[in-house]
Amino acid sequence: MKKILLSISVILMFLTFSCTSPVQEKVAVVQRPDTSHSNAFYISNRPPLEPLAFIKLPIGSIRPEGWLRKQLELQAAGFHGHLEEISQYLEKKDNAWLDPQGKGEHGWEEMPYWLKGYSNCAYVLGDEKMIKEAESWLLPVMRNQREDGWIGPEHEKSGIATHLRGRADLWPNMVMLTCLQNYYEYAGNDSVLTMMSRYFKYLQTYPDDKFLVGYWPRMRAGDMLYSTYWLYNRTGEKWLLDFAKKIHRNTARWDTGIASWHNVNIAQAFGEPATYWMQSKNPADLQAAERNWQTVRRMYGQVPGGLFGGDEDCRPGYTGPRQAIETCGIVEDMLSDEVLTRITGNPVWVDRCENDAFNTLPAAFTADMKALRYLTAPNMPQSDSAAKCPGIENCGPMFWMNPHRHRCCQHNSGQGWPYYAENLWYATPDNGLAALFFSAGEVTAKAGDGVLVKITEDTHYPFDGKISFTLHPEKAVTFPLYLRVPGWCERPALEINGKKVAVEAQPLSYIKIERKFSDGDRITLTLPMTLRVQQWAQNGNSVSVSYGPLTFSLKIKENYVRKGGTDRWPAWEIYPASPWDYGLVPDEARPENSFKVIRKEWPASDMPFTLQNVPLELQAQARRIPSWKLDEKGLVEKVPVSPVSGCGPEETVTLVPMGAARIRISAFPVCEK
Fold it and tell me: What's the chain's Rg over C-alpha atoms?
């Protein structure tokens, strides 16, 4: 009996110890989430498709705050949120997108281009007025589907920018499919699934020689391929996989190389083979996306800012930092990076998206987002309305900040920030959550065994590397939490509830924290930012300077001169009101030691991408280069080959993040000592 009582006592002591022992956490460094599992709560790839590494959360799960929310609010209040007042293509009277027979004066890409950004901005902000306005376009498109399954315009009249007529041109409908998918993800309207299925069944009847004819549909059909997999994952209709094969075999051959040197085609379609890889499982398809990216950057992207010179097309001999990218190209490249992040799990695509988003996208608009320009370059110390061809391929006022012009970019540019906000967090195949694109805000999603978890994120990233997460699960729950380590970060630091946790995470990896999370648990990730100087040997040995994910430009005083537009929506030219013709004088042995980091207060306006409010600057030594000028058309001359002789006396200059500089020098010559 005594032995039995003793055994019971031991068991009770063990149970008491087990219940009161500290939470055991597992912290590991991984290259990808484990895709052998299947998320129980969010839609991912159905077999036989390759599983997704990261799973997009339903729209509305993520609420951005801080500077990102401010950008979205500015977009809603700016020209894009009011484009119906400006654009003839958004007039509802006689619009083919709203007509039951698809007839009308306007019925090409402009409306769905605009709606894609407008509706998602509305969803992310929770703006009911904007959502109702978006539905005033979406719902008629859904109601007006023809009996045979066709959707959208027949556009036999005007409003079309190619030779294609009627149902031959599938391109504008590809954009509308994205709008419908986003609406389903936000509102859960099952009519979207029925409509898309009927439409694809109709297209399945097209013989191959009549399918994807014309330039734009063939180049950009990767968008429709992605839509097909999106629908398959929600309906499980097996015939959709045959339709996907049909799309891929009739699409431009991005799987064998660069199918087009048009900058937006590249940005939008370079990853098409990786999308098809989900079905083909051929490693060559997955590798093709990376090869395409590397090819373009090697030939035309040896410049800071994340993008490449394609104004409007990439041209041999036009490879320097004065070559520009369309605003369309910026936002499409960001979207491609976001999709490839989900497909591959490779964090390099997040780095590349951030490079575009932080260093180029903000500069394509005025700070109040009431105007945009068609083209933006790393080096453009003047942004006026004069034509710059042939130095810039496109003639016309391509550098003019004008909300009334730049037709495709005017409508399409609005997708950039909303899609970025929707990709801040992901679900993972093992019922976890992942923070990849860091921003202040909160996410609410199911994790573990289905517990609803809210995580608030406090940070001024990318201007600061400290990111704090506070967890609020409805009840204690165990799940894995993934935190991305950027490629530029060597020694991230981690704290859990104020206690330092040893972690040796290499750049381009994920810190995986698996533990039982309780309400109020706090995780702090610190990504130390260091100065880096990169030499661009193919462009005159010019150099650029980065700190963390931000690349810097000379701080040039901006003189805005009104040129056209209306009083409500004015257009602007921007002229330099201070010298811009500087070369840097870095230390030859340790060039990163040549710059001093100056931190300033965070702006109350939450508008850090402005010269007036930027919270981070660098001081550097520089010398003016009298021989470096603007040409007769106001285009900056090619960057002088370094080292440059004949420079002026040494001065101290200020550098600011290049995303905050609407006129800028970001690829610097180096002056002789």
Answer: 26
Q: Is the peptide bond before 643 cis (omega within 30 degrees of 0)?
A: yes
Question: Sign of the C-alpha dihedral, residues 369, 375, 376, 381?
Answer: negative
Cβ atoms of 119 and 183 within 8 Å: the answer is yes
Say if residues 134 and 414 touch (Cβ distance below 8 Å): no
**CA pair distance 387, 389, nearest whole angstrom:** 6
Query: Is residue 633 left, alpha or beta, with left meaning phi > 0 and alpha meaning psi from -120 to 50?
Result: alpha
Q: What is the SS3 assignment for 166?
A: helix
Which has the closest alpha carbon to 505: 477, 527, 523?
527
Quick one: how far is CA 486 from the chain centroid? 16
- Integer Cα distance of 165 and 217 in angstroms: 13
Say how far apart CA 571 and CA 563 lie, in whole Å.
Answer: 5
Could you give the CA distance from residue 11 to residue 305 in angstroms, rounded to a whole number?
Answer: 63
Task: Residue 113: name the closest of 61, 177, 52 by CA.
Answer: 177
Count of C-beta atoms within a 10 Å radius of residue 33: 25
Q: How many CA atoms lie within 13 A of 361 on its CB side?
A: 27
- Dump pLDDT digits (tens) for 15-66: 433 333 345 679 999 999 999 999 999 999 999 999 999 999 999 999 999 9
The distance from CA 214 to its chain's CA centroid, rounded to whole angstroms, is 28
d(CA 173, CA 394): 27
Residue 159 has pLDDT above 80, yes or no: no
User: Whole-angstrom Cα distance, residue 103 to residue 512?
Assistant: 54
Fill in the DSSP letter of residue 298.
H
Amino acid of residue 342: R
- Give the Cβ contact number of residue 17 at 10 Å: 9
- The residue ranges of DSSP E strands in 365-423, in sequence order, are 375-376, 379-380
Instruction: Determine the 3-state secondary structure of 356 from DSSP.
Output: helix
pTM of the model: 0.95
User: Beta 531-536 vs 542-547: how paired, if at all?
Assistant: antiparallel
* Averaged pLDDT for residues 639-654: 97
Distance CA(632)–CA(650), nearest Å, equals 28
Strand, helix or coil for residue 3 = helix
Q: d(Cα 307, Cα 301) in Å, to the nearest integer?
A: 6
Hunting for tokens 């006689």 — which residue is that?
A: 94
Q: Which residues pair with 544 in a beta bridge?
A: 534
Q: Is 341 helix (H, G, I), strand (E, B) or coil?
A: helix
**Pairing assessment for the beta strands 433-435 and 477-485 based on DSSP bridges:** parallel
Give the three-state DSSP class for 500.
strand
| CA 416 to centroid of chain Cα atoms | 6
Residue 343 · residue 275 · CB < 8 Å: yes
Cβ–Cβ < 8 Å for 341, 350: yes
